[in-house]
UniProtKB/TrEMBL annotation, chain A:
<feature type="signal peptide">
    <location>
        <begin position="1"/>
        <end position="25"/>
    </location>
</feature>
<dbReference type="GO" id="GO:0005615">
    <property type="term" value="C:extracellular space"/>
</dbReference>
<dbReference type="GO" id="GO:0008191">
    <property type="term" value="F:metalloendopeptidase inhibitor activity"/>
</dbReference>
<dbReference type="Pfam" id="PF06907">
    <property type="entry name" value="LXN"/>
</dbReference>
<comment type="similarity">
    <text>Belongs to the protease inhibitor I47 (latexin) family.</text>
</comment>
<keyword id="KW-0732">Signal</keyword>
<keyword id="KW-0677">Repeat</keyword>
<feature type="domain" description="Cystatin LXN-type">
    <location>
        <begin position="36"/>
        <end position="133"/>
    </location>
</feature>
<protein>
    <submittedName>
        <fullName>Retinoic acid receptor responder 1</fullName>
    </submittedName>
</protein>
TrEMBL record, chain B:
<dbReference type="InterPro" id="IPR034248">
    <property type="entry name" value="CPA_M14_CPD"/>
</dbReference>
<keyword id="KW-1015">Disulfide bond</keyword>
<dbReference type="GO" id="GO:0008270">
    <property type="term" value="F:zinc ion binding"/>
</dbReference>
<dbReference type="Pfam" id="PF02244">
    <property type="entry name" value="Propep_M14"/>
</dbReference>
<dbReference type="InterPro" id="IPR057247">
    <property type="entry name" value="CARBOXYPEPT_ZN_2"/>
</dbReference>
<dbReference type="InterPro" id="IPR000834">
    <property type="entry name" value="Peptidase_M14"/>
</dbReference>
<keyword id="KW-0645">Protease</keyword>
<keyword id="KW-0964">Secreted</keyword>
<dbReference type="GO" id="GO:0004181">
    <property type="term" value="F:metallocarboxypeptidase activity"/>
</dbReference>
Amino acid sequence: MPGFRAALPAALLLLLLSSFPPAAAEQPPWPWTPGAMHALNPSDRHASRAAWTALHYSNYHEASPSTLRALRQVLKATVKIIPGLGVKYYLQFTTEGYINGENAGSCLATVLYLKKSPPEVYIKCAHTQDKKQIQEEDNKFYHYLHHQTKPIIANNIPDSHGNIDRAHLPLWGLAIAGSSYIMLEKSTENLGYFMAQVKAVKQRIRKDSAVEFEFIVLLHETPTQKIELCHMHLIWTLSPPLRVKYICTSDNHWLEDGSGQDYGSAAGLFHEKEGNF
Amino acid sequence: MRALLLLAALGAVAAATTENFVGHQVLRIVPSSDAELQKVRELQELEHLQLDFWLSPRGLGDPVDIRVPFPSLQPLKAHLEANGVPYSIMIEDVQALVDLEQMQMLRRRRFMPFSTSTFDYTSYHTLDEIYAFMDLLVAENPNLVSKLEIGHTTENRPIYVLKFSKGGTNRPAIWIDTGIHSREWVTQASGVWFAKKVWADLTSPKGLANILDQMDIFLEIVTNPDGFVFTHTSNRMWRKTRSKHSGALCVGVDPNRNWDAGFGGSGASSNPCSETYRGPYANSEPEVQAIVDFVKSHGNIKAFISIHSYSQLLLYPYGYTTTAVPDKEELHQVAKEAVAALSSLYGTNYKYGSIITTIYQASGGTIDWTYNQGIKYSFTFELRDTGRYGFLLPASQIVPTAQETWKALEVIMAHTRGHLY
């Protein structure tokens, strides 16, 4: 599968950068000279955070539950401050299958954190999995979902003990792929995310070739340690793009700042919908 | 042939019942010659012996397992020896095994372990189960293990610490705590495993035993009992304590921001609804105050290790400031060795360094306070994993996590013992 390019092709980005007027006096948060490339210790948390941002991008864009990747190790990282624009990370890292934990090859990526928009990512990964096998797995799952006569409903994936029913593994995968879109949009140089749990999932049966789900997912935000609750609506047609719409607790001040509350009331949303169904 | 008849006669006299298996043994014979194989086959003819073949004779090299009722044991063994047929005793007492199985079945139904050897270390447990485990451990070895109550939580639950000691008075000590953040379940589960491990090592001549010749070990398995119960009953993702301070809209304080080290500075929140809320003042949380009181009154703790999850990190102070601790070189070296030991078991990858450079700025943290109290070997662990399962680490990973972490703890403890101050 070809690597995906960021919305702005690299060349165009360079052109834009070179046409920028000299930056107004701006205090960079880093002790580094703007414009120059600075090597980072691969253990630096900013490097792993940027690598995960790149993986959120990839996991979303591949739209394939069988191809999800998790970070294994950052091998090389450099950073460059682009005055007036943002901070750009250049990364080389190894990955493993998100679901099976097996070696999934290494990736090269650039991540540009902007001031007022989601990060821009370019990522290209080596492929260690059999393309045909991936396609088969995704197809199998897709057809299983597509042929449901009763909507699939599930809660707590994984459960409190970290268990995931075999039958729910692909649901978990789809949730990760969709949540990756949310996590990508929210990621900044200083805020990172992991999908902590699928609190609830409910399928909406469709007559066309797409499969549709409502999810409630919990995202773990670092370093704030916050657990964000997001209601995510997802449509999958086997090939990208995955259509994702979402709203999270911090977006509409649903549950104040999240802490001190439990999620019973939000999970109850699904049950209500079931009643009306 | 005459010997065989004698054996048969003796067997006929024996009136073995099959109601219970007291004294029954299971013997194993592995025929290595045609003659031996023939002899074993002949045994099957002797009905009066009431031999129960679990594995019947097949060919050369194939094991034959026989359950032998008690009265037939001596005659059969004598017969085998007389004919030069070697055998071994596979099960010494069949009834004991049956009893154990029944106990285990009962235990599973009632969820109450009968001993620390039947406790299930591969599952997550409730507070009651862990507290029961502690009592069992103490009961099994009251001379070496004791349970101390160091305080009470907001919801009035007792806070317990296990003390492992071979004697002496106020020996230099090692402190380990798990579960300060309640949702980090692999830590309390590992704490339970550590308790058993310390106890097991106490009775073996090598390794830990020599640390315990000079030092005591204190282990607080559930450092945040109220939060832990809440993760079982209401919200699996609960992190903080369950205190309700006046005027606060939300419940709970982050116990790892409540210590008197850089309290009030950057790296903690003043918002009660935040997951990193520092609390109205340092040591506002009884869970924290209890440890502070204990450490101060003990006065001789030399290593302090506080365990969290997840991220796979080994950290030393400081979190509240970028200023390096005076002992940085040494702590960094110890961390390096500890991480190498940890990785040697399953290849699990850890990073290490000071809190502020490796993870993030955090003020009011546990080991910043303990270090400033003079406890040089102050470390924090972040156990498995790095985000895939996060707090919901599968129970199957509890024991491997505990085992590898123990390797790192051994390095820290050995270094402390070798460099007492």
